[in-house]
Write a structure and sequence with these properties.
This protein has helices at about 1-10, 15-20, 30-35, 45-55, 75, and strands at about 25-30, 60-65. By secondary structure, the chain is α+β, with helices and mostly antiparallel strands. The two termini are about 20 Å apart.
Length: about 80
């Protein structure tokens, strides 16, 4: 849910008018308790939000203390 709100804010006319569409190049997001739900899964809404970031030219960077193997497959497969 948090990521969805961030993407919505970044794509708002107000943000784009104030900062332009190239104001942000990267977005860093924690996995546990932020991107993942209580079942440690990436929700479809968050996956859609990550795709939207890519369409906006913003690179999504997951941040975690997990090993690569512990990161959900959907996140590992992102470009």
């Amino acid at each position: 849910m948090v990521l969805t709100k961030v993407v919505y804010s970044l794509s708002s006319d107000k943000f784009l008018e104030e900062y332009g569409d190239n104001a942000l190049k990267y977005i860093f997001f924690d996995l546990d308790g932020t991107l993942l739900n209580s079942k440690m899964e990436v929700t479809p809404e968050n996956l859609e939000a990550i795709k939207k970031l890519g369409e906006m030219g913003i690179i999504f960077v997951p941040c975690t203390g997990r090993t690569f193997a512990e990161v959900p497959e959907e996140i590992r497969e992102l470009p």
